[in-house]
Amino acid sequence: MCKQASLAILGLTAWCVVHADDTPTPAAGDDDQWASRAAVGYTKTGGNTDTSSGNALFHIAHLEGSWKFLFGAEGLYGSTKGETTAQAWDAHFQANYNITQRLYWYGGLRYDDNKFSGFVYQETISTGAGYQFIKTDDTKLAGQVGVGERRLRTELLTEDSVGAITSTMELPAESDTVLDAALNLDHSFNASTKVIAGVAVESGRLNTMTSASISLQVKMTSVLALSAGYGLIRNSKPPPGVGSSATLTTLNLVYELKNAKLAPE
After folding, report:
1. Minimal CA–CA distance to 42: which of 4, 15, 81, 73?
2. Domains in the chain, please, with CATH?
3. 109-124 per-position pLDDT tens digit
4. Is 192 exposed, middle or buried, given 0-12, 13-18 or 19+ CB atoms closer than 10 A?
5. pTM of the prediction?
6. First-residue to last-residue Cα distance in the chain
7. Quick one: which H or E segment has residue 216?
């Protein structure tokens, strides 16, 4: 499977490298208030079991005076023997207001939809305070904690031997108050290699959802890189018959417009 993943990524990389060098580097000025990161990965295996999977993400950050705006969206799809066996996406938006150079107040929205998690959706609105513990060109480490209101809906799933869903029964939607916390790290080891890591927790009476990820990114050009990553999502109270944890290992092609002032968490 890793061999097929590597061939797929390298094939796409070869095409992109040819065109990436023709892409003009953004000039200083208005563009220095923006940062963005997009990634895509795809694998396909054949034989006794045909399996394919794809994942993508897009993160963007923008500075406007004392405000910092963050938006992100991620998606995943997988199939086995022509049947869908993985399907998930999430989106989030956050606005930070700088009280000092390191202390900020935030308000955020998040929506999570994972077809195989036992939750039809989990959506949260939250607010709280954050602190930028490290803020240099090479390293950015920020943590935040707050409270929020979450609405979620669970469902009972029936799956076949392959892992595809054959039937669902949705349960009534519920709401609860949650503790919202997150920690994000972006560190460059040198001009071409960096690590990106993060963990987020939404904990309340109905469920505690923990998501964590780490990736190592190696640059090939000024805007293109290869990234190897690992992610974990855990729900403490999934419906009966649904596992509490899911993991994802990825090999991605990354397009990034880096900004020393901020990272697109």
Report:
1. 4
2. 2-257 (2.40.160.40)
3. 999 999 999 999 999 9
4. exposed
5. 0.82
6. 29
7. strand 208-219
